[in-house]
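SEQUENCE-TO-STRUCTURE ENTRY
===========================
What this section holds: a protein sequence and its matching fold, both as plain text.
Question of interest: how does this chain fold, as expressed in backbone structure tokens?
***
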Amino acid sequence: MDAKTGLIMNKQSSYFLSLMLFSIALSAETFTSEKHNFTIETVVEGLEHPWSVDFLPDGRFLVTEKPGRLRIVSNGQLSDPVSGLPKIKEKGQGGLLDIALDPDYANNQIIYLSYSAKGKGGVGTEVVKGKLVGNELKDAQVIFKLTPKTSKGQHFGSRLLFAKDSSLFITLGDRGDKDRAQDLNDHAGSLIHINKDGSIPEDNPFVNNPNAKPEIYTYGNRNMQGIAMHPETGDIWTIEHGPQGGDELNLMKAGVNYGWPVITYGVNYVIGTKIGEGTEKEGMAQPIHYWVPSIATSSLLFYTGDKFPNWKGNAFVSSLKFGQLARLEIQDNKVIKEERLINGKVGRIREVQQGLDGYIYMITDESNGRLLRIKPLE
């Protein structure tokens, strides 16, 4: 090949490479928002109904799969399942659910998992802590068990959140038996508050009530699958599945009754008949915001990063039913603006999280589920 021919071929190669990159750019879908336009890229796929993601300090990801597997994601590849997990019973909406790193993970390598497990009476939500060493969970210790267990397969909760004092909040559902949410001697339908070793905080609201479970922080909750701490106030907020309509955003206060099933903005499935006594009752809290029809809320995030400066302080609520992100602007504990994003383009969104890098990540609840990264357009 002479120099002239080589030059022509190099120019042609550059031309075709430019065409290819231009074609890729055209095929990458752009999403619009009132305050940021963005793209979505796949970090990894091939996950079976992933339920939660958390972020290791070295840049790797931990992802739970509902059938009972914990995976480490590194450089776009899935590890073999992490060994040493407790025995997990996948039943209905239950399985391996949330994951959270200990606030002192950098020094102790301890992680926490929520999951459904068999026991007397059926299955129920449990929480285990253990040390992640390589691809193994060591010294696993169960620190919480919902009681009583039941044979039903719905409404397990179950998100985990560490407060500023390193105590642990656990969201639970009513396990498909709505009246349990009003029974203080039953964990179901409540927000649980324990220390990270499983002991009971001395200031829990019902700790001195002999007819109540001392771990209960709030009650009257149907099925909370999202929880987040407000970045400025430190307040705890949750997202709760309603029935047919009536998904709720709640500001959680110790000892408060959030009303389910006595009050709700939802109605019975299919037949659409009234549930309980209406939408309000003295002594029962009102939601900060609610959705009718239901969007099937699945997680909650307050964004604090610098990659999307115009979204800073906004809340994001993921939706299973419509595959949406609801972006909420909140002032003085009131939602003053809601914008719906993505609108079904990526599938059922099980969780939205902020990464250590300031980007926003999502996982999709599919048999071939994906971990996705939201990036602003340059």
